[in-house]
Input
Amino acid sequence: DGINVIGDNCDSWGGLSPRVSRSFIGLQGRNAYIEQSLVLDPLKNYTLTFSAAVRPGHSSLQALEVKAAGERVWIGSPASASLSDSSFQPYTATFAPRVSEVSLRFVNLSPTHIGDNAIFLDDVSIQPARMP
Output
């Protein structure tokens, strides 16, 4: 369990190809996470975009949670049709940080009692949200 850097079309990880890069991050096992500290303007809204998938052929109970400054900004699973188990799909979340120092965290919330559950991430970016 843990964090893995996985190459494009790696058969032992399901043979998926990331949307943008030649490798992607795998969060293997419940509570595996990757986190980045950011400095953001608490007076602005931000749009987070990322691509994600789950390991093909494994449980549909896999789940991914995204938190910014400790607050949930996105959650999804194959059971809710939010995460694909056949290819990377783009996802978006908009959030307003309450503080300037923000930790952005992607957490694998898959159950521990069901085999090898991995969540795959690629192409993460944050931009100020466009105002209407």
